[in-house]
Fold each of these.
Amino acid sequence: MPDEDDRWWFCLTHQRVEHGPGCPNKDRMGPYDSEQAAAGALELARQRNEAWRRQDDD
């Protein structure tokens, strides 16, 4: 696993991707291995939430 200073995060406060140290971890999603993965954090969370809702409906 890469050093946390070399990982990517999605900041929920500023609604943007951050690289390495940035906002407190409580305010961001990640870490991710790439900028592209961090940029897709909200969409990935939406997809997972929808899958969980469908499971609950079954």
Note: The mean pLDDT is 92.
Amino acid sequence: MNKVHNNKAWWLVLPVFLLVAFSAVVPMMTVVNYSVQDIFDQSSRYFVGADWYRQVLQDPRLHDSLLRQFVYSGCVLLIEIPLGIGIALSMPSKGRWSSLCLIVMAIPLLIPWNVVGTIWQIFGRADIGLLGASLNQLGINYNYAANTMDAWVTVLVMDVWHWTSLVALLCYSGLRAIPDVYYQAARIDRASAWAVFRHIQLPKLKNVLLIAVMLRFMDSFMIYTEPFVLTGGGPGNATTFLSQTLTQMAVGQFDLGPAAAFSLVYFLIILLVSWLFYTAMTHADKQ
């Protein structure tokens, strides 16, 4: 007997496709159009082909910002992924304390990005900030507005404070999904805590960690609001990342053509690196 397929459900998905086309595809095609034109005003536009792409790829600002961005994203992943796993392992699995821990861990994720930057801007001030004033009273010359290393560390710690909770909550949900029979077998074999983590918990967390790594890489690679509010990209260009360089080019200088080409290169870099992460982790999972 032939099975009758009902395709009416696709009509329910159609509004989603239209919304995605309106909010993503159409702006993307507009950016592509800008990237191959030299725009003087609404009535004066000239086709320049790939000239803007060549100019952007040879721009030293792109090279400096790209290196700075990769270093920052690498530091974020190296800190937040192990820290999130550790926090998830230390959280209680059930009871009231479990609910309380989940609420506390979710609080930083609810704070808007610009508010996070403002909080740390005040918190790190050397004159009135709790962190900055305390460090200076201890004899540590701390000033994120004037010292490059202080600015870097402050932006990194701010990101760790804001987003480690996401990794911890993802890992916690992955740990709770592991069947109890694995732990029972480990207790029968008298496996150590490290052996349980190495052979049971970590393999079962691979898919969750893939999601966490992808989300944190893409978000850290596109970071803009927090460092802009905290340091304004300074001191100098020490905390000027790719998104800020793009904004300065598009809004500050109003170079729409180079900015459009820059944004497409930016998008392709994120897409390529995310694909490499996904391919590497899925290949390791299959092995």
Note: Residues 63 and 189 are 54 Å apart (CA to CA).
Amino acid sequence: MIPFSHSWPYETSGNDVYVSECPFCESNHVILPMRKKELKDIREGKKKLLVFPCCMGSVYIVDTDADYLLANRRLRK
């Protein structure tokens, strides 16, 4: 089980995936370089290197659910 500290909330709009705030630089409304279809692939076991376009902070997304991206390292302070 992945701890809550390794999760970050996300939203979708059309095919875009975005976060309200970047966990690294705290920029607002960041559209992620991934598509809604990729969330299903990650849920089925594929890992994805996610590089936030606002600050180039990176993390591996290892799982998702309907509300959260689940990462391989801590995203919350």
Note: The longest helix spans residues 36-43.
